[in-house]
């Protein structure tokens, strides 16, 4: 595994995409500051300072795309929950991959596939984790957010947290690639905070409302509304 540390970058994901051909499989990119951090649906990820985690994994598991790769964000959300539990927290997952603590977002995950025509070049899997922040800084975020230091009452060593997360990610990575979402399904479900609730999901330009009934073996969300079943592959719970 190779590691790259950048003092300042637009985003670790953009850096990874722009330099993908020169980066080896399982390279980890970390930055002290991001000027244009991004989340899902082109949302911005606010830089809370250099004591937080901004990181991307460069992954080149094969020469062709496999549908299992679409679940890597969910795999990372489960891994991150395991790490946060080691700090004494009870994290939850909001479909598909947001990680929450006490109902507030603590981490965001974004995976981007890089293609060259029909050729699969690799994936850039990014994660931002609020490790050290103040209540005042979190008030600038448009949705309820928290940070690890505020939850446990002490400052977090970013390098140490990164090392734990990277080691945990790669410890079962190959097995996940072999088995797909079913490998993590039971643990994912155990952290889910959305099941059996009336929710609204933004999927591209459409909103779907209903009760979240289950998650399929492929990580899709099953909604029921007035007796009709909807299976959503992509989207965000509003």
Written overview of the protein:
- The structure is a single chain.
- The protein has helices at 12-18, 72-85, 135-138, 148-152, 158-171, 173-179, 185-191; strands spanning 3-9, 27-34, 53-59, 91-94, 98-101, 104-116, 119-129, 198-203, 206-215, 221-225, 228-232, 236-237.
- The radius of gyration is 17 Å and the shape is globular.
- Helices cover 24% and strands 34% of the residues.
- It is α+β, with helices and mostly antiparallel strands.
- It folds into two domains: 3-191, 2-Layer Sandwich (BirA Bifunctional Protein, domain 2), CATH 3.30.930; 198-237, SH3 type barrels (Roll), CATH 2.30.30.
- A seven-stranded mixed beta sheet has the order 1-2-3-7-6-5-4, with helices on both faces.
- Helix 2 (72-85) crosses helix 5 (158-171).
């Amino acid at each position: 595994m190779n590691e790259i540390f950048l003092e300042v970058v637009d985003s670790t994901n953009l850096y990874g995409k722009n330099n993908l051909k020169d980066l080896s499989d399982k390279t980890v990119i970390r930055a002290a500051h991001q000027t244009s951090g991004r989340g899902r649906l082109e949302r911005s990820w606010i830089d809370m300072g250099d004591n937080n985690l901004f990181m991307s994994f460069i992954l080149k598991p094969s020469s062709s795309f496999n549908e299992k790769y679409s679940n890597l964000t969910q795999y990372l959300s489960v891994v991150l929950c395991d790490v946060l539990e080691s700090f004494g927290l009870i994290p939850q997952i909001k479909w598909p991959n947001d990680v929450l603590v006490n109902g507030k977002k603590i981490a965001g995950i974004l995976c981007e596939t890089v293609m060259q025509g029909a050729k699969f070049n690799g994936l850039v899997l990014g994660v931002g984790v609020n490790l050290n922040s103040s209540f005042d800084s979190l008030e600038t975020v448009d949705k309820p957010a928290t940070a690890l230091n505020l939850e446990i009452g002490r400052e977090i060593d970013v390098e140490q947290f990164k090392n734990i997360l990277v080691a945990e990610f790669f410890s079962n990575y190959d097995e996940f690639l072999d088995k797909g979402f079913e490998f993590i399904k039971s643990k994912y479900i155990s952290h889910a905070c959305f099941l059996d609730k009336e929710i609204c999901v933004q999927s591209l330009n459409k909103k779907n409302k209903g009760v979240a009934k289950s998650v399929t073996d492929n990580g899709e969300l099953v909604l029921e509304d007035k007796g009709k079943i909807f299976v959503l592959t992509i989207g965000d719970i509003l």
